[in-house]
Design brief:
It contains three helices and four strands. It has 88 residues and is an alpha+beta fold.
Length: 88
């Protein structure tokens, strides 16, 4: 099994995340897996080490493109958030 390592959030990282979220209100940041979630398309985007969103590598949550490692690393809080947004 591959381990997913999440970089601790620095002040600069959080500023970049906040900037991304401000510019795109459809996005939410899933801290436990270092990914952005687009609520309009049920797509996740990886976050770069800088906190910026990697729009070039979208992954569909509803088309089962996500690895088991990603799902296993998802915190209970983030999993409940996704459940409310996607499946309810």
């Amino acid at each position: 099994m591959t381990k997913i390592y999440i970089k601790p959030m620095t002040t600069d990282f959080m500023k970049n995340v906040e900037s991304i979220l401000k510019d795109n209100p459809a996005l939410s940041y899933l801290e436990s897996v270092g990914s952005y979630f687009d609520q309009t398309s049920n797509t996740i985007y990886p976050a770069f080490d800088s906190g910026r969103c990697d729009y070039e590598n979208p992954i569909s949550l509803t088309e089962e493109e996500v690895s088991d490692d990603w799902w296993n690393a998802l915190s209970d809080f983030d999993a409940q958030f996704l459940q409310r947004k996607i499946w309810n």
